């Protein structure tokens, strides 16, 4: 049994906006491993900034879904 698994990437964490699927903007913010507790605040703010930059010309009355309830997901939802 694996409990509290915090996956990390060989490279740096992924924080980027690269996809639109079914008219839904996808912001990636993952791969921090156990460093999410220290880098979470900055990476969450960066993800929100990327989102705000992409929706400037779009309707501001949109719904947002944050997938992931770890520290990164919670901080992103908070910001």
Q: Tell me, rounded to a whole number, the average pLDDT.
A: 80
- Please give the largest β-sheet: 2 strands, antiparallel
Distance between the termini: 33 Å
**Which of globular, elongated, flat, extended, rod-shaped describes the shape?**
elongated
Radius of gyration: 13 Å
Task: Find the count of extended strands (DSSP E, 2+ residues).
Answer: 2
Percent of residues in β-strands: 15-25%
Low-confidence stretches: none
The strand line-up of the biggest sheet is 1-2
Number of helices: 2
Portion of residues in helices? 25-40%
Q: Write the element-wise H/E pattern from the N-terminal end onward.
A: EEHH
Structural class: alpha+beta
What do these coordinates show?
The protein is 34% helix and 19% strand. It is α+β, with helices and mostly antiparallel strands and 79 residues long. α1 crosses α2. The longest helix has 19 residues, at 36-54. The model has no long low-confidence stretch (mean pLDDT 80).
Structure described in brief:
The protein has 79 residues and is an alpha+beta fold. It is built from two helices and two strands; from the N terminus they run E-E-H-H. The chain has a two-stranded antiparallel sheet with strand order 1-2.
